[in-house]
Records
---
Amino acid sequence: MIVRPLRLCNAKSEAQQKLMAIFMPPSPANIGYIRRWLSSEGPPDTVKQDWEFFQFQKRLLDPIGSQVAPHYRPHELLSRPPRAQDVSLELLMASQAHLGHATGLWHPANAKYIYGVRGETDPIHIIALDTTAAHLRRAAKVVKGVCEQAGLVLFVGSRPGQARAVVNAAELAGGCHLFTKWTPGTITNRQHLLHRCQKKAVDNEDQEVACSEDELRDHGALKPDLVVCLNPLENYVLLHECALNNIPTVGIIDTDCNPAWVTYPIPANDDSLRSVYVIAAVLGQAGKEGRDERIRRERMGADGWSQNYV
């Protein structure tokens, strides 16, 4: 490699001489100058010269380089969740949503979601991210519509590390969350399993209203209007109960899962926490938009009904 010297032949200051000695090709004179500069035997009054050298080097090197923007910031998925229209292929690629399972574990029903195969010794399937983005936007539209009509959305994620994403999405959408094991019969046998749960009445603006215990006792246990499942493989019983009660479901479908288990599948990597956090944040933000729209219309008097939800 040929290093071209900088054009500092007419340099007279001490700082320019130091920089010229560094970038010039090595010679006995330059090497001796650098040794004297780095040695501790130099004069003690070199602070001014060093400061001039630093300022000159800063002015010279500041224009060099590049600015990497925008780049992936996974910590902002909780503080600044993206909207459905902000979902891009770059965001999904950075969150590892395209990585599937080994080709020997694939489900044939996922053939339309698979882009190709990567690897020779241990090949894995690659998920088509354009399909993932389209299905994610569709699911976000469904969540927004349910929250806009004062529906109850249940977010479920029982794998290690998914609790924070589930709780954050439920808080945004004003729904419920579950990050532990699903109790079989919670939906199909909810009158016996949930009869001791505490109930409260809220108005159309999600504000709690006073209600007697007799009125609350007359209302049976609620069932969710929509269930968002982040790991369908471990929650097949939940999805089966939702199908028996005609409850629509949204789920992350990896290449080894049957997409027929859920109503609105989202083909993506369910093993990556970044991928799960992106999808949960987008769905939670969509629920928040629908909830805010409902509250805004209620305050403006656009809705002609005033029913309390228990």
---
Amino acid sequence: MGAVATAPRTEFSLRQRLAHVEQGLFVFGMTIALCVVGALTTDGFLSLNNLSSILQLSVTFGILGIAAAIVILGKGLDLSLAAVAIVTAQVTLELMRRDLSEGRAILLVVLFALVIGLVNGFVVAFVEVPALFTTLATGQLVLGGVLVLFLEENIYSLPEGSAIAVLTDGSILGVPRAVLVGALVFLLGWLFISYTSVGRLIRAMGDNFDTARAMGAPVRPLQVLTYVVAALLAAFAGYVMISTENSVETTGTAFDPLLFTAVTVAVIGGVSLSGGKGTLLGVLAGTLFVGVLNNLLVLHSFSTATQDIVRGALLLAAIALDAWLHPRDEETAKTDEL
């Protein structure tokens, strides 16, 4: 009798197995472990006030993380998001100081954010300038230009009775309103990416441009759309920021930490810089992890420089893990990436 042929058994490497694991669940586990460490080493860490503070302070960079994730899922990168958020807060309060009504100020600034998103998307998608350089340049231009040409104060405080304050003022059924706002944005973002045809096309585009075109996706307009949505989310994050903190500085010192925190929560949550991979569940997990970490660094009185070192190391580790789990080869690499 002849030997019966058997199909070769596929061997999966550790990297291939880990690449198919939902990274968000792993990060949730890391967050719980970090909370245990905090409870054992820090008095009052598990108090309701401290836990509530962690959640409320995480909302701003969590929303920016969603914005960053939407662009990255489409194989892009937006480094102007923090600038848009900060400028949104600054310009709105300056317009109100100049006696423009709050509603009109918000409308003008949101339109300004939309234009920034359109410019970013057009330059990246149609002019084909790498997103890294495009968005870094627009972010610096917007931040510096508004500071030099328009702003007149060093610190802007939110006026009493402002509608913006309603975003995070008080609680509903004992839950801080800021947390509910953040949860709503995460829910809407998850529904958009997971259950709408546009969201699925964005993921397909990020995974492979040619496949997305074969599915009938208008790739270039979709790229523009991701930057527009991200800019509008960044503007909303700016309003959440001033609603939570009641003021905003006109210096650029808040730009870098906010930017890199937004990118960190997306990448550490499993949104791959290669595009098309990742979930907003992972972004939520990354937001909670970074929020707890920030809180512990402050409670243990680490210097600002030390905190920057820790955050930088965390971002580098997240990028290195992403590169290892999702390597780019000559077949998948695109000339217009990042």
---
Amino acid sequence: MLSQPSENALALNQISKTYAGKQVLSQLNLAVPYGSVFAFLGNNGEGKSTTIRVLTGLEAPDAGSVTICGNSLYTKRRSLLSRTARFVPDYRLLHRLGGLIDAPSLYPNLTAAEFLSIGCRIKGLPVSEIDRVLAVVSLTGAAKRHIGQFSLGMKQRLAIAHTLLGDPKLLILDEPTNGLDPSGIRDIRQLLSELPASTGTTVFFSTHNLDEVEKMATRFAVLKDGRIRFESDIPSWKAAQQFNMTLEVGDANAAHTVLLQHGFQSTMTNPNALRVEGLPRDEQPRLHALLVNEGIELFQSYQSKTSLEQWFTNEHTD
């Protein structure tokens, strides 16, 4: 019997996985709270796809546990022909999640409604589910159109609609915006960011599109060498980031000297401009005051914050 939900929609505890003698996942720990849009980041070859296959029941771990909605996904069993016990997924529990791994396989000769009706029959769901999930992904008006006429973005939304059949509590997506044009990316971003509020579904997705993570995720984790190396909610990460500032001044050389004397690292970009990097937010007024008090003309000041892509490149790329 499945238990009641815990505080996390998904939890991985001490997950390890080895392929051909290579350790891909090493005592991986991760918790995805209910109601979150959780981004799973990492360079190619770090184990993101393996992790997703483990938590969707496609690959059994060598050690550790996966918990979905408070229930253990794997139990150790010994088959009749084997002396060694191995992890086996509880397929009843997999009905609580929807997964989209790799590019979706759709039938171009079917309409959207016909395609979803197949999923309803397989899962034993009423056909009323078709209208519900099409509304969630904003494809109600395309229900009777053939899938072959869909754009890539529409196909991706239809594939997500298919994963939402049966109202799963957890949605797992592997690179959901991969290959989409800006319009398609925007549609997927809006859809995923609104899912927890509109359906109560928690979203866990892997991606290389770090710009989109800042716009739609509530939390993220970085996988490196088979382990989580960093994890944070987006607001806390943003608050901790430093600023870069570009200053237009009367004398960049004099300004550079003053700032250097007071511990600021700056780079002159031309005789009347310089750039200061790694500046805490509360230091900006002091920097301006230093220049003005030294009689240096300050014409304009522009600031920019470190993006997630810049931060990831600096901190987590060899």
---
Amino acid sequence: MLYDIDVRTRDLIGASSTDPAIRRRLADEIRDVCINVGFFYVKNHGIPPLTTEGALHAANQFFSLPLDSKTKLDIHKTPNFKGYTALLGENTDPENRGDLHEGFDLGWESLGKDTQDRDDGAMSGENVWPPESDLPGFRRAVLEYYHAAVHLGEYLFPLFALALDLPENFFDDKITKPAAIMRLLYYPPQTGTVDDRTIGIGAHTE
């Protein structure tokens, strides 16, 4: 069965307007699309194309490493859900045989040399990285994109607050310690006979 899905795009130029009516209108549009569609694309988001390209290139390099190099960073060896997940290492839908992708999870970390400035907790704590000698520039490229995406999220929060009829600064004191987890994912091409119980990722909610 084919479904006609309304995927809407929201332009963030109005978010920085000094006219509160323009910000209010954009917030109302976001509220509408969140309620009636569930998600939306953003344009004019401010993330430089080179930052995105750098992260994609770094991800491709990582997933091209030998398996034994990647499994040294196995996510099951860490207490805080950071690191590498092997092909079929997750099974989102118990009716399936496993998720046909590899992954690499990371959380907030300073771009500086000090890699210990994190709080303890299930979704925080130290990231794990391949040696710089194996993948020069990998950590920096990935973290630059992570920080750009977190900044975009912070930029959206005043609009979310307005959409909920709250003061624009309502979330300011609630997002001082980012708990966002970012995932690099690789979905291998499927050729030949395809098992319908082995798909990229099983049905799930976020």
